[in-house]
Amino acid sequence: MKKIAVKASKPYEVLIEQGLLSECGRLVSEVTKTKFTAVITDDNVDAIYSERVISSLEAAGFRVVKFVFPHGEKSKCSDTLNSIYGFLAENGITRADSLIALGGGVVGDITGYAAATFLRGLSFIQIPTTLLAQIDSSVGGKTAIDLPCGKNLVGAFKQPELVICDPLTLKTLSPEIVSDGMAEAIKYGMIRSSELFELIASHSIEDYFDDIDDIICSCVSIKRDVVENDEFDRGERMLLNFGHTLGHAVESYYNYETYTHGNAVAAGMHMITEQAVKSGECDRESLEKLDAVITSYRLPLTVDAPYSGLIPLCSKDKKCESTSINAIICSSIGTSFIKKMPFEDFRAFMEA
Ligand code: NAD
Ligand code: GLY
What we know:
The chain has 352 residues and is an alpha/beta fold. The protein folds into two domains: 2-172, Rossmann fold (3-Layer(aba) Sandwich); 176-208 and 236-351, Dehydroquinate synthase-like - alpha domain (Dehydroquinate synthase-like, alpha domain, Up-down Bundle), CATH 1.20.1090.10. Helices cover 45% and strands 20% of the residues. It is built from 13 helices and eleven strands. The chain has helices at residues 24-29, 43-59, 78-90, 105-117, 131-137, 175-192, 194-201, 212-229, 244-253, 261-278, 284-296, 307-314, 343-351, and strands at 2-6, 12-16, 36-42, 63-69, 98-103, 123-128, 142-147, 150-157, 162-165, 324-332, 335-342. The strands form three sheets. The chain has a seven-stranded mixed sheet. Helix 2 links the parallel strand 3 and strand 4. Helix 6 crosses helix 8 and helix 9 crosses helix 10. The longest helix is centred in the middle third of the chain and has 18 residues, at 175-192. It is globular, with a radius of gyration of 20 Å. 47% of the residues are buried. The protein binds nicotinamide-adenine-dinucleotide and glycine. Residues 136, 140, 142, 233, 237, 240 line the site of glycine. Nicotinamide-adenine-dinucleotide binds at residues 42, 44-45, 48, 71-73, 76, 103-107, 109, 129-130, 132-133, 136-137, 140, 142, 151-152, 169, 172-173, 177, 180.
C-alpha cells in the first residue's frame, strides 16, 4: 500500500491500493473514536459501491446510516446540504461521530462542507471514486457548495481524517470522466514534475490504468507539497490553478453545459501556454508535448469562443484580485510560476 502523509493544520494520511474499499471498516476504525458513522454518496456510486463499503464498516463494528442524493453538479447546492443536515439530525449524529464521503468531487465537497458546519464541525473521511477526486478534490481540505450565481462560492477549509483511495473503482467510470480527471493529472505534471508528465504521456486513454497507482501517488504527493506550503491558498497553492482561469471562463461562457471541467481546463492549459510561447516565456517543444498528451486523452486544445468573450469572465475567477489576475504560466514542462498582471496586461497577453 502507498501511504502519503499530509502535514496540514490537521495531519492525515492518503492510502492508495487496489482493493482497499473492502478494508475501509478497519482503516476507518483506526482514525475515529466512536462506532457510528453516516455514509454520504450519490445514486450512481451507491448502486455500485455502498454495499461493499457498508459491509466492511459493519464488520469492523460500526453502526452505519446512509444518505443518497442524485448524481451531478446540480446536487452540490444548499437544498442537498439542508437535506443532509436534516438527515444527520434525525439520525442523532453527534460531534463525536463521523461522516464518510463515498464518491466523486461533488460528494466529497458537499460532505466535507457538511462536516465543517454541522454541529460546528465533526470529522469526516474521504473515499474518492473518480480520478479527479482521487488526485485532487479529496486532498487539501477545500470543501464547498455552489450558489445559483457561481460554483464553489460557499465553503470552508476542512481537512479529512483519512483518504482511502482504491484505484479499482476507476474501472467503472466512463472514458469521458477518466479523461476529465486526467486533465488535472496533466496539470500536476506541467506545474511540478516532468517525470509525472512523461509517465502520463507514455500512456493514453486506452491504457492509462497500467500505471494508475503511480500516477495517483505522484499527483497526490505534488498536491500534498503545495498544500503543506500554502494550506489556505494565499500563494503557492495558486499554481494548482494552471489552465483553470481560462478553463472556468470557458465553462461559464457555455453556461456549464458544453464543456466539462476537465475539458475546459485542458483547453485553458493549451491556450495560456500558446500565449506564453509567443511572449517568449515558454519553449515551443513544451507546448507541442502538452498538445500531444492532451489529444491522446481525448481532451480539446481549443474552443470556439473568442478571447474577447472569455477574458472578461477570467476576472470573475476566485483567485483574482480587484484589478489584477494571477496568471499561472509554465516556462517548461515541470516548471511554473505565478505572474500577477493587471487585467489590461492580461488581455494584451492573451490577444497577442
Ligand atoms: P462527480 O462527483 O460529479 O462524479 C462524476 C460522475 O461519476 C457522477 O455522475 C458520479 O455519480 C459518477 N461516479 C463517481 N464515481 C464513480 C465510479 N467509481 N464509477 C461510476 N461512476 C462514478 O465529478 P468529479 O469530476 O469527481 O468532481 C467534480 C467536482 O469536484 C466539482 O464540483 C468540482 O468543483 C470539485 N472539485 C473540488 C476540488 C477541491 O479541492 N475540493 C478540486 C477539484 C474539483
Ligand atoms: N483544486 C485546487 C486546490 O485544491 O487548490
